[in-house]
Design goal:
single chain; alpha/beta; 8 strands; 11% strand; globular
């Protein structure tokens, strides 16, 4: 179902008074067709949704279907020339190569829906306490361009939309994708109302990093224990920069040892421990948590979907325990 006006009007009600099942935001158009043999695992989005259905996390009471983001919302973050090039399917070849996806009708619609989905996720988190998108985390997109499989910076767009609507003033972005959130860092570089934390593999894409408010560069091969030991104090430092009105959590699973674009060495258990720590700590701080799935790159999309589903299962368990 779609988000009603009544839900939007009630989104800031205390979570304990409006207890609902974990809101999951998904659209079937998150997975448009790509040319055969393309290296981006687009099939993971449909596989993730099927996995959540099997787990009972994508049925009535959970599922919310987003609308495409409005052009005006995109313009709070992205240059008009770039936005219109995507909307008219006229992205210059050099930018399309930087994105790494063919910006055709399906990919453009997916970018609009994923951004709309992250905004819907944030609105639901303000109401329920925690909400999860089944896409999102396009943190390499900058005002003037996309990059690294990212067309629009959905988290930045959602932050600006909520600020413009007067729903929030300050936001915390916790980016735990294996790649640094360079686009997000660039967008909010001079904004004291948005704190960006990026914990990533330093010896990985992008080659040229942008300074986040707090960057933690991990060495290749970092495993579960060392990762969690680095994450915990970084999260405390970020929270100390508050107060914040909302937290966005990019839960990329490309930190896994088997990820072909990762270079870190977390296990499934390590990813689950990471997600539990982050979501529980943010909730303990009183923050609504809007989660996006970030990166994950394997040829086995079923295994990849299971790994992404750790986020939704963890969030559902934490939200249920609060009730």
């Amino acid at each position: 179902m779609t988000i009603s006006r009544e839900q939007e009007a009630d989104e800031r009600a205390p979570a304990q008074e409006k207890r609902i099942p974990l809101p999951v935001v998904h659209h079937e158009a998150y997975a448009p067709p790509l040319p055969e043999g393309h290296r981006f695992p687009m099939g993971k989005f449909a596989a993730l949704f099927a996995r959540l259905q099997a787990l009972g996390l994508a049925g009535p009471g959970h599922l919310h279907v987003p609308a495409p983001i409005a052009r005006d919302a995109l313009l709070r973050v992205h240059d008009a020339a770039y936005v219109d090039a995507v909307l008219t399917l006229s992205v210059p070849p050099a930018i399309a190569r930087r994105i790494g996806l063919p910006v055709d009708a399906g990919v453009a619609r997916r970018a609009l829906l994923a951004s709309g989905g992250t905004l819907a996720t944030a609105r639901l988190a303000l109401r329920a306490g925690v909400a999860c998108n089944t896409a999102g985390g396009s943190h390499h997109a900058r005002p003037e361009t996309g990059a690294g499989f990212c067309v629009f910076n959905d988290v930045a767009v959602a932050v600006r939309a909520l600020q413009a609507a007067g729903k929030i003033k300050r936001a915390l972005i916790v980016d735990l994708d294996v790649h640094q959130g360079d686009g997000t860092a660039a967008i909010f570089a001079d904004d004291g109302d948005v704190f960006t934390l990026s914990v990533h593999c330093g010896a990985n894409f992008p080659v040229r990093k942008e300074p986040s408010d707090l960057d933690v560069d991990l060495a290749p091969g970092t495993g579960d224990d060392a990762y969690l030991a680095a994450l915990a104090p970084a999260l405390e430092t970020a929270l100390a920069a508050g107060p914040f009105d909302i937290a966005f959590y990019n839960a990329g699973v490309d930190v896994h040892a088997e990820d072909r674009l990762g270079r870190l060495a977390l296990t499934d258990a390590g990813i689950a421990a990471r997600d539990r720590h982050v979501i529980a700590r943010l909730r303990h701080a009183g923050l609504p948590v809007a989660s996006v799935i970030g990166g994950g790159y394997m040829n086995d999309v079923e295994a990849l979907a299971d790994r992404h589903a750790i986020l939704h299962q963890t969030a559902a368990a934490i939200l249920a325990a609060e009730g």
